[in-house]
Amino acid sequence: MKFYEFEAPYYALIKASNEKEAIKKYTTEVCEDDKDEIEFHQITFEEAIEEIKSSIDCSPQDFFENWDSLVADKAKELLRKDSLGVVLVDSSLL
Predict the structure, then answer these.
(1) Range of the domain at 43
(2) Other CB atoms within 10 Å distance of the CB of residue 6
């Protein structure tokens, strides 16, 4: 499994088997723009975890001492699932 971070025209983190599959997911589920205008790159599993952690706007760190660890564990669980597809998407599309 590979992880692709799309940066333009809209942000998305996509889990896919290869680059071609990631582009297809992006153009069918996130943005139908011309494939030539899409900016993306492959990232590591660890970088994908950090992207998920940083996407959480509000963190109840005041209530949970181990919040970062909880989020990291859930991110790993999500990224290790066999399912492919969009993991994160630009909030302006919601």
Answers:
(1) 2-93
(2) 24
Q: Check: CB of residue 43 under 8 Å from CB of residue 35.
A: no
Return the H-helix or E-strand segment holding 40.
strand 39-43
Q: What is the pLDDT of residues 52-78, one digit of tens each?
A: 888 775 556 655 677 778 788 888 888
Contacts (Cβ under 8 Å, ≥6 apart) of 52: 13, 71, 75, 78, 79, 87, 88
Query: How far apart (Å, rounded) are the C-alpha atoms in residues 49 and 92?
Result: 21
Classified as helix, coil or strand, 13 is strand
Domain count for the chain? 1
**Per residue in 8-38, pLDDT tens?**
999 999 999 999 999 999 999 998 877 778 9
